[in-house]
Specification:
alpha/beta; four-stranded mixed beta sheet; elongated; Rossmann fold; 17 strands
């Protein structure tokens, strides 16, 4: 029976009560009215309770969505959930608000579930004599996933980076990017970063020296001694039929030149039976060693601080080694296999034109810019074809057309005219990477 019908029935009975003459009419009417009044009171109270329940549900939903952003790092999840629910539950007639469940649960495939449940009570009015209050509850779940992220920073460490505050601003910007991505990480290891400083070489570090991936020919010729001390170089020593003794490879600091074409622009695994696929060793200057993928935020920051500008520019080698760091095969094997829940990204930064590379087939330097640019372009094409996103940043100088075409799309190319703008650029990229990790 509807509320309108109940009230109509009561009016009819009241009209009949007036002219009634029987002595028991009043008593009969009073007794008969009790169930009717009880039904009316119950309807009113339950209507208020349902309204309060709807308000509580909305508050719990809002709290769950808000909490899901930082649930993994929230120490007092029930207490924080209570504050959020209380702030959104605007019912002065409700009491005894409680959080009965607030749980954060990692699921399979890098997904997570947050559950929040709350209860409250509302005092009754017309039904108060037999039911002083009504309890009600609400619960909500948020299930979401985050893509893992593997990011390689290919950073120009050439001598020109010492001018116009470029290296100083790069360090500030790169460390802020690391901080932003650290905050975006939802689970241990779901964001990893590699750092690849480059000039004309990269510095792998000599801990890899005992592997069979290396072409030692030129390094051995440049580092050794002749059986006759009058002959200081390999060529002069051999010319006069003397014995040349290379230095122990433990003395190698870890620097590498470009591989022989086409291995210089791809990620093919080195093969000891294919000489062109091996990595040519070289002498080092002050170039900082690279850092393979890691989520050790302290070490990443320290690596950025250790960078020192020196030498000439070979963008290709920085790009290719950034690519190496994002694959599972040697020489760097820290990456995960490609999958739908994983983004692989390279950020390339340079402040100058290509000036010097290495032709390993001829064992000679390459100084023709167009030849080196062609290598860089091919490396960019190959990286993008492998499904890796590529950001490029030009700082004041450099081949703008090359860097623009290297980027995955033009919106991922940044032309920085003042080094102080680097922090804004890196922050923009970091926020974009953090937001794109949301899978559902």
């Amino acid at each position: 029976m509807s509320m309108k019908s109940l009230f109509a029935s009561c009016r009819v009975r009241l009209r009949e009560f007036g002219p009634a003459q029987g002595g028991n009419v009043a008593m009969t009417f009073a007794l008969a009215s009790l169930p009717v009044l009880g039904l009316i009171g119950a309807a009113v109270d339950y209507s208020r309770a349902n309204s309060a329940k709807s308000s509580l549900q909305a508050a719990v939903d809002a709290a769950t969505l808000t909490l899901s952003k930082d649930a993994a790092k929230t120490q007092d999840l029930p207490g924080t959930a209570f504050k959020y629910v209380q702030a959104n539950f605007n019912r002065s007639d409700a009491k005894d608000l409680k959080i009965v469940k607030a749980s954060y649960e990692p699921l399979a495939n890098n997904k997570f579930k947050l559950t929040v449940a709350a209860t409250a009570k509302i005092d009754t009015t017309l039904t108060g004599m037999w039911r002083p209050d009504i309890s009600f509850g609400a619960d909500s779940q948020a299930i979401w996933g985050f893509k893992k992220l593997e990011l390689a920073l290919a950073l120009d460490n050439t001598g020109s980076m010492s001018s116009s505050g470029k290296m100083t601003q790069l360090k500030i910007a790169a460390k802020n990017l690391i901080t932003t991505l650290k905050s975006a990480a939802k689970a241990e290891g779901d964001i990893k970063i590699s750092i690849i400083p480059f000039d004309t070489t990269v510095n792998l570090g000599n801990s890899y020296k005992d592997n069979e991936w290396f072409d030692w020919d030129e390094w051995d010729k440049a580092n050794g001694s002749c059986s006759d001390k009058d002959y200081k170089t390999y060529n002069s020593c051999i010319k006069y039929n003397k014995k040349w003794t290379p230095k122990n490879h433990s003395n190698w600091e870890g620097c590498l030149r470009d591989r022989t074409y086409p291995y210089d622009t791809n990620d093919n695994v080195p093969n000891i039976s294919v000489a062109d696929s091996l990595f040519p060793t070289a002498d080092c200057g002050s170039l900082t060693t690279l850092m393979p993928l890691t989520s050790n935020w302290t070490n990443l920051t320290s690596k950025i601080d250790s960078m020192s500008p020196n030498g000439m520019t070979n963008v290709t080698i920085g790009l290719v080694w950034a690519w190496h760091s994002l694959t599972t095969q040697v020489p760097l094997t820290q990456a995960l296999a490609p999958n739908s829940d994983l983004d692989k990204v390279v950020i390339l930064l340079t402040d100058g034109d290509n000036t010097e590379a290495w032709d390993n087939k001829k064992n000679e330097e390459v100084t023709k810019q167009s030849s080196i640019d062609a290598r860089t372009q091919l490396a960019c094409t190959n990286i993008k074809a492998a499904g890796i996103k590529l950001y490029t940043i030009r700082v004041i100088n450099g081949n703008a057309n090359l860097l623009r075409s290297c980027a995955t799309n033009t919106s991922m190319y940044y032309d920085v005219q003042d080094a102080s703008q680097l922090n804004v650029v890196f922050t923009t990229i970091a926020n974009s990477l953090a937001n794109l990790r949301l899978a559902e």
